[in-house]
Amino acid sequence: MRSVHAKRRLASILIPILGVASSGIAVAAKPAVNKAEAASAQQSQQFVDGIAAVVNQRVITLQQVNVEARMAQQQLQRQKIPVPDFAVLQKQVLQRMITEEVERQEADRQGIKVSDAQTEQAVQTVASRNKISVAQLRQEIEKSGVSWETYIENLRKEVRMDMLRQRAVDSTIVISDAEVDAFLKAQGNQLPAATQDPRAQQPRQAAPVQQSGPQVLGLAQILVAVPEGASSSQVQELRKKAEAILARVRGGADFAGIAASSSDGPEALSGGELGLRPVNGWPDLFLQATENLKAGETSAIIQSGNGFHILKVLTRGQAAQGGNAAARAPVPGPAAVPQAQQQAQGPMMVTQTHARHILIKSSKVMSDEKAETRLKQLRQRIVNGEKFEDLAKRSSEDVTAPQGGDLGWLTPGETVPAFEQAMNALEPGQISEPIKSQFGWHLIQVLERRTKNMENEFKRMQARQILFQRRIEPAFEDWLSQLRSQAFIDNRLDPQSNRNRR
Questions:
Q1: What pTM does this model have?
Q2: Could you tell me the domains of the chain?
């Protein structure tokens, strides 16, 4: 997978405006604290002396946790999900905050920054996917009790975290030609409609779908996480915990309420909802566990590398065509051929570009300014007669460096927008000025262009996209688990979680 190809978009910006964002974009107004909550907070504060957790060298205070817990409380109430006791809610919120802090520190380490232009683009995406103007979006946000400045700041954080996931995870997933061949053979050379992003989310109370689009499946989960290196006795203990949770669910307890109080998944405070996706967009493990379940039914316990999962089928059927707020752009891997062409039969003529590039990644050591200056110097050396491919071999930080930065033939939509826009502005033989993407700074040279009939290749592109989507979520969870395991975490509200990590 060529790293420049990653094209994932922000997941939580595509949910309904006033819905629940897993990482807090739809922020609630600060509620009043009742006496029980105040007593719980006071008791906890005395116990931890005002410090809820330490993540590496950064402190998360109890006050910060309480603010987030009250927001989560309102969020659950809006969704009509049973709200856990405040002490339980504190622990759930703190786990989410720890994860976000670990990700934030990693983004800092890699020097990932979000420009104003990228934030504005995210706002435009939210508005367009909800079929409203930016002005209307602002009205809706402020009507919910959230200031526009707070919304924008949280959205910027979401974009940054998504850029981190793109850089750290997406580029590690490689789909071989043999895997594509096997998938097409298993499908009888017929493919479903294009799938959507694995992290797209839907409201808890989804409207019935119309019988016109591709087969879709909506799931929720309760996850009992198993830490890396857990002993057999720990695994058995956690399995028993999962079995007890499953017994409660099958005994009639509210699935979303138990997820909010007991799940270790990042979507716990959204009632465990994983979203609504075309069937082929789910990991194989989830498909196998739910293939015979109807809407409203719950799976047995299934085990993955991350722990024990209990799945509930929320929706099963066909999606209405025409799109809703969760319709996503294709994810990295295949070319993102325009939707009109995806449905077309017969010749599919596409203009492709043969290009190469030099990538300099920004980091704490290599600032954006230094990276841009470095590429300007390299560009001048090329203009003065040095070969682009020779400098790429010595200087590029992309996996294509040994090939002189050669990216091969690129189809429209196959690279991230900033890269593609700069590439499309070049004539064959021309070299771009330094341009920035979420992967760093690029110097691009266009070698040649051609128009090609993609009819015979498009099915392979779709197959590659489906296989990519099936793998991205498990890969992301594995990466995040490793990131947490490498960090020093002292959770003072839930010391047991510290022991589970050892």
A1: 0.62
A2: 8-169 (1.10.4030.10), 349-453 (3.10.50.40)
